[in-house]
Amino acid sequence: MDESPGNSSQTASLAWASQYHYDTVESLRRYFSLGLPDSSPGFNALPDPSKAVSLSDYIEETGLRSSLALLTLIEAAFRQDYRYRCHKRLKDDLSRAFRAKHKRLRDDQNVSLEKDIFDVWSRHAPGANQLIGELRGAFRFRHWLAHGRYWTPKLGRSYDFEYLYRLADGVYFALPLQGWDEA
Prior knowledge:
- The protein is mostly helical.
- The chain contains six helices and two strands.
- The chain has a two-stranded antiparallel sheet.
- Helix 1 packs antiparallel against helix 6 and helix 2 crosses helix 3.
- It is elongated, with a radius of gyration of 19 Å.
């Protein structure tokens, strides 16, 4: 199976994102192991050499960026599922609820992931509440990342790439997301 980002399979994309993350972290470790000091001005000299970045700083930033990438994969899967269920006329309660939501909103672009899609999943998918609750917290973290990290977030837990990968894997395993393999 092709696990490049162009493959529409969410699980393949998830595996590819994980491989990319760990390859990048390993590359950073190898770069810093070349006998360079623990802090290095990097490939391009920084304007202020006193603000050199350490290996741990780079790894932390890589984790944040990889986390954002995972959360975008999750959002895409839920949005594709919503669109699929609205247009394929499936007969289950979840699909019917999405079609009713779609009829009220009149446009796929107006649907909110958290207020519309997650709410319907919580109400109409048996056993989805815990995962949806975890996703809501993870998406508060995503908002902090995506909007510039200029405030101190109150998240209730810490988020890192490993936790988010396990959450994404759990979502793909436990929830019957539809349509991601037809994109």
